């Protein structure tokens, strides 16, 4: 083709190229504008509490946004955003859907902010995204299923959020995935089997969720896998063989699940594994036999605590020369191999020179503690507690790095206490526990020479005697001091008040005597004080009110006297308990008790406290347990007690409380025990609520209580009212009889007075009426026997009786039949006749008896001289033949 002919073609090509160039520039400008608008959208949706995004100026030109902080643009396309790095900027708000407009975005790094709401589904449109980190925010909702369309994703980190739902199974489509971190969310369901097929996966972290099911059998396929962390889920089943044999695995952390079966031996033969943590599961069997070819094993930490493992520690354990942590506590190791059954290898200190942490507590190990432990000079923590070790505690003063030593709950002895002296060389020691052994002898003063860093000293439940060394105040950093359940005697040293960092002090169950030192008030951060079961006496010091951080105070079972200091009740911090029971405290409860607004249990029982229960006690609205039994309280239960609705136990028994039981107890739904027995309560028991369960309510010994149902084994209120009416009627009868008797006696008094006046003129020696009781008359008549009956009429019967105090002994006793209508009138009439009749021959009235018999019936009788012969008529109207017979006395008592 000639040059002339080719010219049009060249022009066409150049035109096309120019057009494409212009169109490309236009397109590029349009995409940059989209990114700019997306950045503006992002800033509008995310509020910032600091000025770190001040460079994001909305009015900037397109060419300047690539200079904004946290924004990275492409080197090839300088106006295109490829990365957002906005970590720890306190960003608040939701990630907007417009984030999908960054079409060239490869990296999103927004951790440690305050982002909330769901992950927008539009994020799945970022098909170039390789890195996504939204960890440590407040993101909720589910993981978008279309996230798997970001097929180039290599890292997904959504840890420490509130994401729920299940792990999307299609994440296995992200074939380039290297790290997947979904720790500390609210994910449920199983681990997708497909995750095990990701051949580039190196880190899988799914800890702190509620995942269930088995670990995928395929996990371990990846030759790059070096870290698996599935802690704190509910996974079950065994450890997959592929995972156990993974040659690249360095960290396997499966703690706190429900995994079971035996531990695969391959895990102990691995040439790559550094950390093996299988604690808090259900593994069984023994530690696998360890082959000797692991002398150079990189294994540094073995955590098998809290399983169901048995057997002994293999002697080949010493081949792990790099081992620094060994946690075997809370299993059932006891062994079945002779000679070394349940023993720690005696040479453990030589074979594990790199050991730093040795945790073997809560097992069944026995024998002596190897002295070779003293050779592991870099050892920092030893826990051999809760086993059956015996013998003398070895000297471990050659362990300069020792921080933690727990030998408690064994059968260890102190010997000459040289072990304690040697520990003074462990200058970094922070915690020492020797609880519940058989250490005995006086507590040496060398205890004061222990590490100045010592914070916890536990020596309770031993046989230590003597006194508390005064020098103990040198332990100035001590926070927890337990010297309880021993044989310590003497006084509490004043120097304890110098332990200004003391948080918990327990000297309970000893033989300490004397007073609590006033210096105790110097312990301004003291939280718990236990002095119960000693021989302490005197008043409770008000200085305790200066311990403003106290949450628990137990002074029970001592001999404290005087009243309770009101300063105690200013301790609003008291929440876990105040126990002053079984002392000799007296006086009234101060009104300030209402200041214990956070108190749970209160026990002031078995004292000599008196007065009324203060109404301010009702201000202690968090009371769960209230014991006030065996005191001398009186009065009513305060109405303010209706505020104590959270109470579970309330015991007010064996006091002098009275009044009615308040109805508000019916609504105490939490209460399991209410003891009001042996008081003076009265009236009806409330019928509802807990009073329908006699196993929860005790009301014995309140004689005036009644119930509407027989359930509580109390008198029924209707019967009690009837009895009360009968009782009232009986009282009224007695009152009426008494009034009538007084009237009658008044009448007789007048009669006798007038008669005495008459007789004084003629018979100055006349005696006063004598007094006889109902019992006297019963005896005189042989219980009113028929043999003594002289005669009987309509209104009464006359009995012959013998009264020794009378001059002639024999008397006539007329008993009135008061059940006959008119008998009382007859009695009054005869008394009136005797009062008004004057005759020198009238039979003498000895006395009148008006009373009640033993069963409360009214009783009236006249006691007169007994006429030996004849009757009234024959003596008043004698026959002619007896005309000259001597005159006889007239008897008014024969009237029937």
TrEMBL record:
SMART domains: LRR_TYP
Subcellular location: Cell membrane
Source species, domain of life: Eukaryota
Signal peptide: 1-24
TM region(s), chain numbering: 731-753
Binding locations of ATP: 814
Gene Ontology CC: one annotated term: plasma membrane
Membrane topology label: Single-pass membrane protein
Record EC number: 2.7.11.1
Enzyme class, spelled out: transferase
InterPro entries xref list: Kinase-like_dom_sf (IPR011009), Leu-rich_rpt (IPR001611), Leu-rich_rpt_typical-subtyp (IPR003591), LRR_dom_sf (IPR032675), LRR_N_plant-typ (IPR013210), Plant_RL_S/T_kinase (IPR051716), Prot_kinase_dom (IPR000719), Protein_kinase_ATP_BS (IPR017441)
Swiss-Prot/TrEMBL keywords: ATP-binding, Cell membrane, Glycoprotein, Kinase, Leucine-rich repeat, Membrane, Nucleotide-binding, Receptor, Repeat, Serine/threonine-protein kinase, Signal, Transferase, Transmembrane, Transmembrane helix
Domain Protein kinase: 784-896
Single GO MF descriptor: ATP binding
Record protein name field: non-specific serine/threonine protein kinase
Native species: Triticum aestivum
């Amino acid at each position: 083709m000639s040059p002339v002919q080719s010219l049009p073609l060249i022009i066409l090509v150049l035109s096309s190229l120019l057009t494409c160039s212009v169109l490309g520039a236009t397109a590029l400008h349009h995409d940059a504008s989209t990114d700019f608008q997306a950045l503006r959208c992002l800033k509008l949706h995310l509020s910032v509490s600091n000025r770190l995004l001040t460079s994001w100026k909305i009015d900037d030109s397109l060419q300047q946004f690539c200079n904004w902080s946290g924004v990275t643009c492409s080197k090839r396309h300088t106006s295109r955003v490829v990365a957002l790095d906005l970590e720890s900027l306190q960003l608040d708000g939701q990630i907007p859907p417009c984030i999908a407009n960054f079409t060239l975005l490869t990296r999103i790094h927004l951790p440690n902010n305050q982002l909330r709401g769901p992950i927008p589904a539009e994020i799945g449109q970022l098909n170039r995204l390789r890195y996504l980190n939204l960890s440590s925010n407040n993101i909720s909702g589910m993981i978008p299923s279309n996230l798997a369309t970001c097929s180039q994703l290599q890292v997904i980190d959504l840890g420490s959020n509130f994401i729920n739902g299940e792990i999307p199974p299609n994440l296995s489509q992200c074939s380039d995935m290297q790290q997947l971190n979904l720790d500390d969310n609210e994910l449920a369901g199983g681990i997708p089997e497909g995750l095990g097929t990701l051949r580039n996966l190196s880190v899988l972290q799914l800890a702190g969720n509620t995942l269930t099911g088995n670990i995928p059998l395929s996990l371990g396929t990846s030759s790059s896998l070096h870290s698996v962390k599935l802690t704190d889920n509910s996974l079950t089943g065994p450890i997959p063989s592929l995972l156990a044999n993974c040659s690249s695995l360095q960290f396997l952390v499966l703690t706190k699940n429900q995994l079971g079966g035996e531990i695969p031996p391959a895990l102990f033969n691995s040439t790559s594994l550094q950390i093996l943590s299988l604690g808090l599961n259900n593994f069984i069997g023994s530690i696998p036999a360890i082959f000797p070819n692991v002398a150079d094993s990189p294994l540094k930490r073995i955590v098998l605590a809290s399983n169901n493992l048995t057997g002994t520690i293999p002697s080949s354990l010493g081949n792990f020369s790099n081992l620094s942590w060994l946690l075997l506590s809370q299993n059932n190791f006891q062994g079945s191999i002779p000679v070394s059954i349940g023993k720690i290898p005696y040479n453990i200190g030589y074979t594990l020179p790199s050991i730093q942490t040795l945790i073997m507590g809560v097992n069944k190990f026995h024998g002596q503690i190897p002295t070779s432990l003293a050779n592991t000079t870099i050892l920092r923590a030893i826990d051999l507690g809760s086993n059956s070790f015996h013998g003398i505690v070895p000297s471990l003063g050659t362990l300069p790095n020792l921080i933690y030593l727990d030998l408690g709950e064994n059968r260890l002895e102190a010997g000459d206490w040289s072990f304690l002296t040697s520990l003074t060389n462990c200058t970094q020691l922070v915690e020492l526990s020797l609880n519940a052994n058989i250490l005995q002898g006086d507590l040496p003063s060398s205890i004061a020479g222990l590490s100045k860093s010592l914070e916890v000293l536990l020596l309770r439940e031993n046989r230590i005697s003597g006194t508390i060394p005064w020098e103990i105040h040198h332990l100035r950093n001590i926070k927890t001091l337990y010297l309880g359940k021993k044989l310590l005697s003497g006084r509490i040293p004043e120097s304890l008040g110098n332990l200004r960092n003391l948080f918990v002090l327990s000297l309970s169950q000893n033989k300490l005597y004397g007073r609590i030192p006033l210096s105790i008030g110097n312990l301004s951060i003291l939280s718990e004080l236990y002095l119960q079961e000693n021989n302490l006496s005197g008043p409770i010091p008000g200085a305790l009110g200066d311990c403003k951080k106290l949450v628990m105070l137990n002074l029970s079972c001592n001999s404290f006297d005087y009243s309770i200091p009101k300063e105690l009740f200013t301790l609003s911090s008291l929440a876990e308990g105040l126990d002053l029971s079984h002392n000799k405290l007296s006086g009234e409860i101060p009104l300030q008790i209402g200041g214990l607004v956070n108190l749970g249990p209160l026990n002031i029982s078995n004292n000599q406290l008196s007065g009324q229960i203060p109404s301010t006690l009702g201000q202690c609205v968090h009371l769960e347990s209230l014991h006030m039994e065996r005191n001398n309280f009186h009065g009513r239960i305060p109405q303010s007690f209706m505020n104590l609705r959270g109470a579970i136990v309330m015991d007010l028994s064996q006091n002098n409380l009275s009044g009615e039981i308040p109805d508000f107890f019916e609504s105490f739904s939490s209460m399991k025990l209410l003891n009001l027995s042996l008081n003076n309560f009265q009236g009806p028991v409330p019928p509802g609520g807990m009073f329908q369960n006699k196993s929860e309510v005790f009301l014995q010994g309140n004689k005036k209580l009644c119930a509407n149902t027989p359930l509580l084994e109390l008198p029924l209120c209707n019967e009690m009212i009837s009895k009360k009416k009968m009782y009232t009627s009986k009282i009224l009868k007695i009152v009426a009889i008494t009034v009538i008797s007084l009237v009658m006696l008044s009448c007789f008094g007048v009669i006798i007075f007038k008669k005495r006046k008459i007789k004084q003129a003629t018979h100055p020696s006349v005696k006063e009426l004598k007094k006889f009781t109902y019992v006297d008359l019963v005896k005189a008549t042989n219980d009113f026997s028929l043999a003594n009956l002289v005669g009987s009429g309509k209104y009464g019967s006359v009995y012959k009786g013998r009264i020794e105090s009378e001059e002639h002994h024999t008397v006539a006793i007329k008993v009135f039949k008061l059940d006959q209508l008119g008998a009382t009138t007859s009695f009054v009439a005869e008394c009136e006749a005797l009062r008004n009749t004057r005759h020198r021959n009238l039979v003498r009235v000895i006395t009148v008896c008006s009373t009640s018999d033993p069963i409360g019936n009214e009783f009236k009788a006249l006691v007169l001289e007994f006429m030996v012969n004849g009757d009234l008529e024959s003596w008043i109207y004698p026959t002619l033949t007896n005309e000259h017979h001597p005159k006889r006395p007239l008897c008014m008592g024969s009237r029937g």
